[in-house]
């Protein structure tokens, strides 16, 4: 490992961590050079994010329950359990029930610096709960309901049980122009590209970093 790797890589931190912790390291990411090539982050950014990730998750692995607990810190007034479950499933690229640093980094790269097309595909996968390539009205309702639960008492006006259903009905009609009973990836992307408000919201994610 050359001097630059020692300064900007993350394995120097990994070694330091192992020396001062009894936690078993269950997962180590691939070489940082590979992650730089596969994401839109610099070496220094990846190093900093890895440090933060390991401080929250010393073993290098995040379970769904751990993810929900971390997520709940950002939404203390609402119930984030269902929405966090859907996010976790989308980040969990190999569907093994765990998220590692690479899973986290790939998802963050898309959402913060990906193309509009990449972001829309990621969001479609979020709504495609059973990962069959189609979004049903029921799946849409489940995700929309989870968002209302997430906001808790901050929704104004306060919602009743019918509000998410009405919202889902409106969105489903908009995203299902062919009235085929399901939303396909193609329909979703095409409809979103034709909606200026959606495109603007996608562009705003570029300012995260």
Automatic annotation (TrEMBL):
Family of this protein: Belongs to the recoverin family.
Q: Which UniProt keywords apply?
A: Calcium, Metal-binding, Repeat
MF-aspect GO terms: calcium ion binding
One Pfam family this sequence matches:
EF-hand_7
SMART domains (alphabetical): EFh
> What is this protein identified as?
EF-hand domain-containing protein
Q: Which InterPro entries match?
A: EF-hand-dom_pair, EF_Hand_1_Ca_BS, EF_hand_dom, Recoverin
Locate the EF-hand domain: which residues?
79-114, 115-150
Which PANTHER family does the UniProt record give?
Answer: CALCIUM BINDING PROTEINS, EF-HAND DOMAIN-CONTAINING PROTEIN
């Amino acid at each position: 490992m050359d001097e630059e790797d020692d300064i900007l890589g993350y394995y120097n931190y990994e070694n330091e961590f192992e020396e001062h912790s009894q936690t078993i390291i269950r997962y180590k990411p691939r070489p940082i050079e590979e992650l730089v090539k596969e994401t839109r982050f610099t070496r220094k950014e990846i190093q900093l994010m890895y440090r933060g990730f390991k401080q929250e998750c010393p073993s290098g692995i995040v379970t769904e329950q751990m993810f929900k607990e971390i997520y709940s810190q950002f939404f203390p007034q609402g119930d984030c359990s269902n929405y966090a479950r859907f996010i976790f499933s989308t980040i969990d690229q190999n569907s093994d029930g765990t998220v590692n640093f690479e899973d986290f980094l790939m998802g963050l790269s898309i959402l913060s610096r990906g193309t509009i097309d990449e972001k829309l595909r990621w969001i479609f996968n979020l709504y495609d709960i059973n990962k069959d390539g189609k979004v049903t009205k029921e799946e849409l309702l489940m995700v929309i309901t989870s968002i209302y639960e997430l906001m808790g008492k901050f929704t104004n006006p306060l919602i009743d049980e019918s509000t998410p259903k009405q919202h889902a009905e409106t969105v489903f009609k908009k995203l299902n122009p062919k009235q085929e009973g399901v939303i396909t990836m193609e329909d979703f992307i095409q409809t979103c590209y034709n909606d200026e408000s959606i495109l603007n919201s996608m562009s705003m994610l570029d300012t995260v970093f």
